[in-house]
Write a structure and sequence with these properties.
- The protein is an all-beta fold.
- Helix content is 0%, strand content 48%.
- It has no helices and 11 strands.
- The strands form 2 sheets. Strands 2, 4, 5, 6, 9, 10 and 11 form a 7-stranded mixed sheet that branches. It has a 4-stranded antiparallel sheet with strand order 1-3-8-7, with no helix packed on it.
- A hairpin with a 6-residue loop joins strand 4 and strand 5.
- The chain is globular.
- The mean pLDDT is 93.
Length: 127
Amino acid sequence: QVQLVESGGGLMQAGGSLRLSCAASGRTYVNYPMGWFRQAPGKEREFVATIFWSGGNTYYADSVKGRFTISRDSAKNTVYLQMNDLKPDDTAVYYCAAAERLLTAGEAMAVEEYAYWGQGTQVTVSS
């Protein structure tokens, strides 16, 4: 079983920055992706970014490219999401997720391919 605990959300003005953290426990260190997704009120959960543990390949949604950076600390089994130049449209609950099998790059952007989810952390960006 894998447990994921997110932290770092909060209220920020547009143009500001936040860093989210996701600590994973009970997980074997393998080349399975971990990702960040978000869900705004009344909308479906959507892909934000993903990272493969081995090699560190990363993929981003077009809406966050150039503003968000996903990274990992292998020693701490933790994944981060650095969010810069925040916009009101970034307001959502952000979820950390972990896959339990190898995924292709395309699969790694799909909500249904992730088996484990954190409880979510709220990010609110004011204009």
